[in-house]
Design brief:
It is a single chain. By secondary structure, the protein is of the alpha+beta class. It has 12 helices and 10 strands. It has a 5-stranded mixed beta sheet. A 5-stranded antiparallel beta sheet has the order 2-9-4-7-10.
């Protein structure tokens, strides 16, 4: 999909207008049925930024979606969770072959103001992936999530009273919790994709530690490694936790210790020189990390080979 200048949509009312829909019943939250509007006639790809949260389930959209670094199709039920300010793109098929279905829940941050969800929504990992990973649902999961979305729609279409917001907030929290469960499951069920990423992580770390980068730049940061893998730091961290039980930082440190062991056992460099070669300004910092990982000092490790 070609790169295009993103178009920013600031309000839910504006998005309704873009889709040719009536004004939303509530300006800060809406449920849009995919079947309720005609597929736009657009020549080429489009790129969008929302200033509001979007939780959407789409099927048979007759389009390719650029979701972070991934191209996704819609033959299956696909759940997307996007935070304000994230960029996503669509490129529609010129001759649609299927009737699209699904829904979108749009929630402006102002709707969450002064609620616990305003803070906790940022703790859900899939909102901080810079949209790198879509969630594929089973038919049962799709029906469950859709039922909650319909309930939210019914609630704000009823007479608004002082209970409306807390009721809707509670339903949103249920959807987000289910989505968290489904994402964790996906890390496990999509092992092939996850293990490919794990192999790429290993290759990236090996290349970095075998180059002059350590001496010139020091230890690689989690953000740097995630960027090289085209995933966000939070997504990489959660995937590694599920597959290996370790954080990204722990993987970086493990690779560092392997390199340190290699130098201690095969070279005549002093421990201070090895610490410097591995990007440490202070010998004490290197020795402390080495000891915490191996339960021996660098010097004791070297002496064990004599």
């Amino acid at each position: 999909m070609a790169s295009v200048q993103p178009y920013r949509i600031k309000t839910i009312t504006e998005y309704h207008r873009v889709l040719g829909l009536p004004k939303p019943q509530h300006p800060l939250i809406t449920v849009i049925n995919i079947e309720s509007f005609e597929q736009p006639v657009i020549d080429g790809p489009i790129s969008l930024i929302f200033d509001f949260y979007c939780i959407s389930l789409k099927r048979n959209l007759n389009a390719r979606m650029k979701y972070g670094q991934q191209n996704c199709d819609f033959d299956e039920g696909v759940l997307f969770c996007m935070a304000p300010g994230q960029v996503w793109g669509l490129e529609f098929e010129k001759e649609p072959t299927q009737k699209p279905s699904g829904w979108m829940i749009l929630v402006h941050p102002d709707f969450l103001w002064n609620t616990a969800l305003a803070k906790t929504i940022k703790q859900y990992g899939y909102f901080s992936y810079s949209v790198y990973e879509a969630l594929y649902l089973s038919d049962k999961e799709e029906a469950m999530i859709t039922g909650i979305a319909r309930y939210i729609e019914q609630e704000y279409n009823s007479n608004i009273d002082k209970f409306s917001q807390p009721v809707i907030i509670a339903q949103l929290e249920v959807i987000l919790t289910y989505a968290e469960r489904f994402y964790q499951r996906q890390f496990i069920t999509r092992k092939i994709t996850s293990h490919q990423l794990l192999n790429r992580l290993e290759d990236t770390l090996t290349e970095y530690f075998n180059s002059d980068a350590l001496l010139q730049k020091g230890l690689p940061t989690v953000a740097y490694i995630a960027g090289k893998l085209n995933v966000s730091p939070s997504y990489l961290g959660e995937m590694l936790k599920v597959l290996t039980g370790q954080s990204t930082q722990q993987h970086i440190h493990d690779k560092l210790i392997d390199k340190a062991k290699e130098k201690l056992s095969t070279t005549n460099l002093s421990v201070s020189e090895i610490a410097y070669d591995l990007g440490f300004e202070h010998l004490q910092s290197f020795s402390k990390l080495f000891n915490s990982k191996t339960n021996v000092s660098p010097l004791a490790f070297r002496q064990s080979f004599n």
